[in-house]
Amino acid sequence: MGFFTIPRDFSLIDYVGGLEDLQNGIIRCIGDPDEKFHQDPVRMIRVVRHAARTRFRIEDGTYQALLRHVAELDLCSRSRVRDEFLRDLCEGSAEASLRLMLKTGMLRAIFPTLDHLSEDAVPEEFFFNTLKAIDARSAPGNPFTPEFSLTVFLLPFLFASVPWEDLPPGRRGPALFRERVREWVGEVFGPLQFTHRAKEIAIDLLSAQRVFQEFLPTQRLPWHFMSKSFLPGRQAALRDRVPGFWRRPRIDRLAARR
Fold first, then answer.
1. How far, in whole angstroms, is CA 90 from its chain's centroid?
2. Engineering a disulfide at 63: which of 25, 58, 76, 90 sits with its beta carbon 3.0 to 4.6 angstroms away?
3. Crossing angle, helix 124-136 and helix 94-104, to 10 degrees?
4. Residues lower than pLDDT 50 in the chain
5. Which domains does the chain show, CATH number per domain?
6. Are 197 and 145 in contact (CB under 8 A)?
7. Helix (H, G, I), strand (E, B) or coil at 11
């Protein structure tokens, strides 16, 4: 906002009208937004994050410049884009941030391989409900890990991107589905240089969705599946996907052994 503080009396000098913007709830670039975004396109992600956190309105000139330069995110260091995206996803304003990213085309610029959200492919309501779940668990003391939040973010896209209807019955089906999930996660995560751990957690949990869907009507999972190493530490996801099964005593015993 371009404030300067005078230590003697803690008064503020505002050269750029930042106080007025603050009072009016406006996010505005200092200087020429086209020049600022061209110099460092990552600033556009920060604009979205600040607007989402504060519920402020992005000033028209800044917003139009963002639309003009959003494709330039592809020119940035992928690790910087990844880290900024994780902040948007994990710091309590994922739903609002990604609504803006979707509206401005930023989400497609960051994840070009993900399908557009639509009622035919990925229903927006499902997508934003998953983001609300992430936001609900962003409070201090009981947050999702960044790796788990990434997996939840991908979940709505899984059903449109990785088919399983044609898989054979028996053990061969889950194995083939896991290979498809691994290939898809690699395509989505690869350009942004996510860690091996993040990829493996996503593959484990997304591959499990086929089993969740199969046993959802009974709200009980098979015992051999419940012993999987990735389940005890991730009961929060199972609570939403398969209500009831985590109350069974075996989960507690499994968690205690680990």
1. 7
2. 58
3. 140
4. 1, 232-258
5. 1-111 (1.10.3090.10)
6. no
7. strand
The amino acid at 140: P
Closest residue by Cα to residue 184 from 208, 165, 160: 160
pLDDT score at 14: 64
Q: Max CA-CA distance within the chain?
A: 76
Q: Using one digit for the tens of pLDDT, what is the confidence trace for 187-236?
A: 998 888 898 989 998 998 888 887 776 666 666 666 555 555 555 444 44
Model pLDDT for residues 4-23, shown as the tens digit of each residue: 566 676 666 766 666 777 77
Residue with tokens 């399983």: 164
Three-point CA angle 177, 181, 184, nearest 5°? 140
Cα dihedral angle (35, 190, 128, 28), rounded to 10 degrees? -10
Contacts of 108 (CB under 8 A, 6+ apart): 114, 116
Cα 211 from chain centroid (whole Å): 23
| Residue 26, SS3 per DSSP | strand
Q: Which two tokens stand for residue 225?
A: 């599946």
pTM across the whole model:
0.76
The two structure tokens encoding residue 167: 């898989």
